[in-house]
Amino acid sequence: MIFSNKLITWYLENKRFLPWRETKNPYAIWLSEIILQQTRVAQGLPYFEAFLNTYPTVTDLANAPEDDVMRLWQGLGYYSRARNLHATAKKVAYELNGNFPTNYKDLLTLKGVGEYTAAAIASIAYDEVVPVVDGNVFRVLSRVYGITSDISANSTKKEFQELAATLIPAEAPATFNQAIMDFGATQCTPKSPDCSVCPYINDCVAYATNQVSTLPIKLAKVKVKKRYLDFLIILDANGNTIIEQRTEKDIWQQLYQFPLIDSFKHNAEDINDYVKEKFDSLYIKEVLTLTNEAITHQLSHQKLHIKFWGVRVDNIPTDSTAWAELNKFGFPIVIHNFIKSLDLKTLIY
Question: How does the cofactor attach, per the note (predicted)?
């Protein structure tokens, strides 16, 4: 138990104050874990507080319109998490009488809840002795124990789960899991950790063999696809515009956007022709280039190159949206930021 004792001692002296650690409420713990998937704590904390204030119970979240949930999630990225969050809230509220499953196995049946999230909820909310295994755990254990297995291989995850299961103390699973998460996030960091103050300095194989910068080993590389997007901000003289919802299974599903050409057309004449073809009832007065250089936006598997065009028109469909009402819709953060930065006076007379 030397490993766990050192870890918990370190944690009790160095742990971060995080609101979801002050409760055994599975709803709050689940909410925090879903938000923190692919998200740093500093970024996720205000979203956690906003969701908990807006939807104090899982039933409140279940009853919320999906557009409202997506708008509150705006800026966190990986929007499938928000859709899964809403779907799971409905299942818990309507099918499980508002009660979350009370064990690891049953938690895995919830949409968006994988092995790591189920282990975190089960151990923290219900004190089930099941270890969490994520990037932080891979890093800590691979360094301390000198494990050189490729963490991108499926078999390696089982190897780490089995090791972690021998380390987690039966009397303090919640503390152990939160401790190893914090230790990996703040002490045994991916780059340039301060090993001089590490409690494992005399035990760490990576430190002893000068492998801290190379462990854990990850051989598989994510292939990043380049994508080129033209967004058309169509506006009449009264500040009305056209938006549409992304409904296909793609990035930003269920969020809103301006009409899109999914490849650069490069010049105003091409944009003019496209708008005439797609919106044949519109009378175009002028096409404006709003971004001389493409805005780059990095996703996990895609690198987006985005341009915005302004299209002044004399008339607009009756189902258009007033510019002042755009804050009622959830947009991808790159579009949301562009809307905030745009001076509407440059587009309307």
Answer: Binds 1 [4Fe-4S] cluster.
How many structural domains compose the chain?
2
Q: Report pLDDT digits (tens) over 245-300.
A: 998 888 998 899 999 988 776 677 888 888 888 887 888 888 888 888 899 998 88
Q: Where are the alpha helices (DSSP H) in the chain?
A: 2-14, 26-36, 41-54, 58-63, 66-73, 80-90, 104-107, 115-126, 135-145, 154-167, 173-182, 205-208, 268-278, 333-341
Q: Is 293 a catalytic residue?
A: no
Q: Which structural domain, as residue segments, surrounds residue 14?
A: 2-208
* Residues 67, 201 share a domain: yes
Q: Is residue 215 part of a domain?
A: no
Domain check: are 68 and 23 in the same one?
Answer: yes
Same domain, 186 and 81: yes
User: Could you give the CA distance from residue 15 to residue 88 in angstroms, rounded to a whole number?
Assistant: 30
Give the predicted TM-score (pTM) of the model: 0.80
193 and 231 in a common domain: no
Q: Which amino acid is at 118?
A: A
Per-10-residue mean pLDDT of the chain, 349 residues long, equals 92 93 94 92 95 98 95 89 95 97 97 95 97 94 95 90 96 96 95 95 95 90 87 92 91 92 77 82 86 89 92 87 92 93 76
**Ramachandran angles phi, psi of 288, nearest 5°:** -120, 140
Residue showing tokens 């002296």: 13
One domain, residues 307 and 265: yes
Intra-chain end-to-end CA distance of the chain, in Å:
73
Please tell me which residue in 22, 33, 162, 286 is annotated as part of the active site. Answer: 33
CA separation for the pair 102, 98 (Å, rounded): 12
Q: Are residues 165 and 259 in the same domain?
A: no
Distances (CA, A) of 48 to 24, 25, 170, 204, 328: 15, 14, 29, 35, 20
Three-state DSSP class for residue 182: helix
